[in-house]
Design a protein that fits this description.
Shape: globular
Distance between the termini: 74 Å
Radius of gyration: 26 Å
Mean pLDDT: 83
Order of helices and strands: EEHEEEHEHEHEHHEHEHHHEHHHHEHH
Strand content: 5-15%
Helix content: 25-40%
Oligomer: single chain
Largest sheet: 6 strands, parallel
Number of strands: 12
Number of helices: 16
Structural class: alpha/beta
Length: 469
């Protein structure tokens, strides 16, 4: 066990069975594939010239797994042994699966070996619960301590904090990691009671609150002493399994919003439920994992973090789930057409962020560029605005790109056909077909197309005062 007085491990800490390291790696890297909280660092950890590796804001290389997920770190479990029997988990105690456990030295050898071969730039380390939360957290701490002090590894490390572990262990580990995360597992306490009765919301939130409070204290310490050790400099994150329990999107986004506001989380990750166990308490999922739903939740999550939206604006108890046809921002805009069109040359930054097709960077570019003069659609295209979506919601110098109608049915019909026709100078090198600007929904005639091309070539000069119709 861990000796708090000496800060060292006592000799009776013992690891179970010994398998060849490569066999362990095969088992424990495969067991980690359902943990999606694997992202670039968001922090800077320099090298003092004596060790190896370093970690910068954009210093983590990205690769892609076979299922399309972006991974940049050696992502493994310390062990897939577990004392819990969560119904949704492949590594639950009742499952007959190959088991393995790394020693701290084995993980260190793998990380350094892979780093020297330029395979990785950091480590993502999670774990099942071996023997007890304290026992597992001890091994995680020992691994990080050896990497940092014995091997002088300065690369990015993301480690899981184990709910129920001694707070002293979590704190010691936090001073060695760049990011820590505590998995929320399921969105609601009721879902935990149904599928993971050995876990509770209180036990999960306790280490999350501890990390938050210690981070705040550490910021004050760093303000006074620049050389003070940094505690979890890249912040903390969490993960929720989506689709294993019947919560709707509104409930999930409300939980995420609360976590961001109350626990100062960097990221909430959403993992589409994959049925890996034959259990009557789990949904059948005849159509496979709800990947589109996961995608919509990630899109909405960005709106919460960077675009100034709130969960109650995107969804409500009357409309509890996201539109499968449109992204959440576009769906919101279609339901609030009274706010559009937006004049690009006068709208505030926050208003620009609510326009479909305008992102954070393009909104910033617009605000800066219009100080030097008024902007037109050509300028917006060069700034990265996605005009095939934005053109229905904006004007430049009081004019729309085409004579359009600010009506939900009309805009919906045109947006559903993704390859929207744009003027030659604005479109990509793709052949487009335009839905009707009128009422029949049929493709444009040759005459109509020629009129539109004349309009675009003259920047809508053929339609004097051509505002929204």
């Amino acid at each position: 066990m861990f000796d708090k007085m000496k800060g060292t491990f006592m000799q009776h800490t013992r690891i179970p069975e010994q398998l060849p390291v490569m066999e362990k790696l095969k088992i424990l890297s495969d067991a980690a594939k359902y943990d999606v909280a694997c992202t670039s660092s968001g922090t800077a950890r320099g090298n003092n010239g004596k060790g190896i590796g370093n970690c910068f804001d954009a210093g983590i290389c990205h690769s892609f797994a076979a299922d399309g997920r972006c991974i940049s770190l050696l992502k493994i479990l310390l062990t897939n042994e577990c004392i819990f029997n969560c119904r949704y988990c492949l590594n639950r105690s009742s499952n007959d699966v190959p088991r393995a456990t790394f020693t701290p030295d084995e993980i260190c050898d793998l990380v350094i070996g892979f780093y020297r071969r330029n395979y990785i730039e950091g480590l993502f380390l999670s774990s099942g619960i071996l023997n007890s939360p304290d026992y597992t957290m001890e091994l995680l701490y020992q691994t990080l301590y050896k990497l940092r002090s014995q091997y002088h590894f300065g690369g990015y490390i993301h480690v899981k904090a184990i709910p129920g572990a001694d707070p002293f262990l979590i704190e010691k580990t936090g001073f060695l990691a760049d990011r820590m995360s505590v998995n929320l597992e399921l969105p609601t306490a009721e879902g935990l009671r149904r599928l993971a009765p050995a876990k509770s919301r209180e036990k999960i939130l306790k280490p999350m609150r501890q990390v938050q409070n210690r981070m705040e204290e550490n910021r004050e310490e760093l303000a006074l002493y620049r050389s003070a050790p940094r505690f979890v400099p890249a912040g903390q994150s969490t993960q929720m399994i989506i689709g294993a329990t019947p919560e709707n999107d509104f409930q999930i986004m409300s939980v995420a919003e609360s976590l961001y506001k109350k626990f100062d989380l960097k990221r909430v990750f959403y993992s589409a439920f994959v049925r890996v166990n034959d259990d009557s308490a789990l949904p059948a999922l005849p159509g496979g994992p709800p990947l589109l739903r996961e995608h919509r939740l990630y899109q909405a999550d960005w709106l919460l973090r960077f675009y100034g939206f709130e969960a109650g604006e995107l969804l409500s108890e009357d409309r509890p789930n996201f539109n499968i046809l449109f992204d959440p921002k576009c769906d919101w805009a279609l339901r609030h057409l009274e706010l559009f069109p937006v004049e690009i040359n006068r709208a505030s930054y926050q208003t620009l962020l609510r326009v479909p097709g305008i992102g954070v960077k393009s909104a910033q570019r617009i605000v800066k560029a219009r100080r030097l003069g008024s902007l037109d659609f050509q300028d917006l295209k060069r700034m990265g605005v996605v005009l095939k979506r934005a053109l229905y919601f904006i004007t430049c110098r009081g004019r729309t790109l085409y004579p359009i109608k600010i009506e939900e049915d009309y805009i919906t019909r045109n947006l559903l056909y993704v390859k929207e026709k744009l003027p030659p100078e604005l479109r990509d090198d793709v052949t487009y077909r335009q839905l009707s600007l009128f009422d029949d929904g049929m493709p444009l005639s040759v005459e109509e197309q020629s009129v539109l091309l004349d309009v675009s070539a003259g920047s809508a000069a053929a339609f004097a005062g051509g505002g929204a119709i």
